[in-house]
């Protein structure tokens, strides 16, 4: 179950967050090779973030997946999500960090059990 959690200091008021969630969900599923029905995207806006000493638009993300991650996959995911944030929220690619976690199924709860 890939879960992408993104926090940004950009206000989401007046932003079509559904488009961001949909596009991110589709890209994560496609790039990792998992069914989109297992993908979760969490987007939090107006989070106080300073990056490089300024509070200009920035974002931080964490992606957790049970398998499917690798150096090549992570580069593609980083590029795809950075492109979405740049086009939809005007967060420059240079002001976005994305951390990856490849988790064991037994460390991920779902449906009252684990994977």
TrEMBL record:
Coiled coil regions in record: none
GO cellular component: extracellular space
GO MF annotations, alphabetized: phenylpyruvate tautomerase activity
Pfam family, one: MIF
Family membership: Belongs to the MIF family.
Protein name: Macrophage migration inhibitory factor homolog
């Amino acid at each position: 179950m890939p879960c992408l959690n993104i926090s940004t200091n950009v206000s989401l008021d007046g932003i079509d967050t559904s488009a961001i969630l949909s596009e991110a969900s589709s890209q994560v599923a496609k790039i990792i090779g998992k069914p989109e029905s297992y993908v979760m995207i969490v987007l939090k806006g107006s989070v106080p973030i300073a990056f490089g000493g300024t509070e200009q638009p920035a974002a931080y993300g964490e992606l957790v997946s049970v398998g499917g991650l690798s150096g090549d996959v992570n580069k593609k995911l980083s590029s795809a999500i950075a492109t979405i944030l740049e086009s939809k929220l005007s967060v420059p690619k240079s002001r976005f960090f994305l951390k990856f976690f490849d988790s064991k199924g037994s460390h991920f709860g779902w449906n009252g059990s684990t994977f």
